[in-house]
């Protein structure tokens, strides 16, 4: 019974998010706008709206909030004047009242377990691509000096496992699973930069790792309009960083290490834009100065605890721009890289395009 109830509440969360995102998709309603509209004179918190839309750990809204949802989405007039608001029920037309009652009954049936629930389709996010389009994840090959003592990375060994030859395997596993779940009808593949074939370049490209080892990342960054370049790590004394050109000068954002060489904070770079190899496809770069930065760039938009708020931030901050970039901190605690929260200003080191004055 608990599993059935969980499925019902997850379906309710999915429906509430779908109302916000797809009822009037051209409006681009954000969680912040919805929180303000539903709360009236006392705005609700964005985190509360997010908890109601969380399909994995849903929090069910009280009846009065579902009633307000139904009133809001019963009429397109809720957007009149450019501000999202809930009209008084007495101002609704007969048709709008009927729509409100229908929607409220649907939401209450989902909450109370009276609805027949089909498995929900994956919610669209930045990792959702048009059906039928190919997606290729490209990793660097782990340099030979790091592979030579690993029998699992030796093709001549009976214990050979090809994934041991990949750099950033943790980021690859995290991202491959997420993209496959979001795009069940698409062909999603991964390979090293050395294995990339001509046709792969014109698919949606997702590049893991930076210019030190991933040659495709270097090729792409050189071909796109972006005021960010990566300064390679020369040796143990030079840890490199991401350099931003602005106003005739430059600023370098570097990882932080202690005197013993332990990583305290990595730097992550996330870039999304049109592919220079196919204008109808995208290229995405998830990069860090070290592996924990690369994983942090990936998890910012895959980690169930942060992806909704980070996706919301990206939508609010960049809107429909074709290309954008975020450089962020990735704190390292106990050897583990933490998922960056882009809604916190102190975590965002640089954004492009820069915000209007």
Account of the 3D structure:
The protein is built from eleven helices and twelve strands. A hairpin with a 2-residue loop joins strand 8 (263-275) and strand 9 (278-288). It has helices at 2-22, 31-39, 46-53, 63-72, 94-112, 144-147, 169-182, 198-201, 215-223, 291-299, 307-318, and strands at 135-139, 188-192, 204-208, 228-231, 241-246, 249-253, 256-257, 263-275, 278-288, 324-333, 336-337, 348-352. The protein is an alpha+beta fold and 357 residues long. It folds into two domains: 2-112, no CATH class; 135-352, no CATH class. Strands 1, 2, 3, 7, 8, 9, 10, 11 and 12 form a nine-stranded mixed beta sheet that branches. It is elongated, with a radius of gyration of 23 Å. Helix 7 (169-182) packs parallel to helix 10 (291-299). 33% of the residues lie in helices and 20% in strands. The mean pLDDT is 88.
The tally of strands reads: 12
Number of separate structural domains: 2
Name the helicity range: 25-40%
Shape: elongated
Distance between the termini: 54 Å
Number of helices: 11
- Average pLDDT metric: 88
Biggest β-sheet strands, sense, barrel? 9 strands, mixed
Low-confidence stretches: none
Radius of gyration: 23 Å
Strand percentage, roughly?
15-25%
Series of H and E elements? HHHHHEHHEHEHEEEEEEHHEEE
Report the structural category. alpha+beta
Pfam families: HTH_31
InterPro entries: Cro/C1-type_HTH (IPR001387), Lambda_DNA-bd_dom_sf (IPR010982)
Organism: Amycolatopsis mediterranei (strain S699) (Nocardia mediterranei)
GO molecular function, one term: DNA binding
């Amino acid at each position: 019974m608990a599993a059935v109830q969980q499925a019902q509440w997850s379906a309710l969360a999915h429906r509430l998010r779908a109302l916000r995102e797809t009822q009037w998709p051209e409006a681009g309603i954000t969680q912040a706008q919805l929180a303000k509209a539903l709360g009236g004179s006392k705005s609700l918190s964005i985190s509360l709206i997010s908890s109601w839309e969380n399909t994995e750990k849903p929090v069910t809204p009280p009846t009065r909030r579902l009633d307000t949802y139904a009133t809001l989405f019963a009429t397109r007039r809720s957007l009149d004047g450019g501000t999202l608001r809930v009209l008084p029920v007495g101002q609704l037309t007969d048709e709008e009242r009927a729509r409100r009652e229908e929607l409220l009954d649907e939401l209450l049936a989902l909450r109370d377990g009276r609805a027949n629930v089909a498995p929900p389709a994956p919610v669209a996010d930045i990792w959702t691509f048009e059906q039928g389009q190919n997606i290729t994840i490209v990793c660097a090959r782990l340099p030979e000096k790091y592979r030579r003592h690993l029998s699992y990375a030796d093709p001549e060994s009976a214990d050979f496992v090809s994934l041991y030859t990949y750099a950033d395997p943790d980021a690859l596993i995290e991202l491959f699973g997420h993209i496959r779940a979001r795009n069940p009808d698409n062909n999603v593949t991964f390979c090293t930069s050395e294995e990339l074939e001509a046709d792969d370049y014109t698919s949606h490209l997702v590049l893991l790792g930076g210019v030190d080892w991933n040659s495709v990342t270097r090729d792409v960054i050189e071909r796109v309009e972006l005021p960010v370049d990566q300064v390679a790590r020369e040796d143990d004394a030079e840890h490199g960083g991401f350099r931003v050109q602005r106003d005739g000068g430059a600023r370098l954002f570097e990882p932080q290490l202690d005197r013993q060489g332990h990583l305290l904070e990595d730097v992550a770079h996330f870039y999304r834009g049109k592919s220079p190899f196919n204008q109808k496809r995208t290229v995405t770069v998830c990069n860090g100065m070290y592996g924990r930065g690369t994983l942090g760039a990936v998890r910012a938009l895959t980690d169930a605890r942060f992806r909704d708020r980070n996706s919301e931030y990206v939508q609010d901050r960049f809107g429909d721009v074709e290309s954008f970039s975020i450089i962020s901190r990735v704190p390292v605690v106990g050897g583990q890289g933490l998922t960056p929260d882009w809604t916190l200003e102190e975590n965002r080191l640089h954004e492009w395009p820069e915000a209007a004055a």
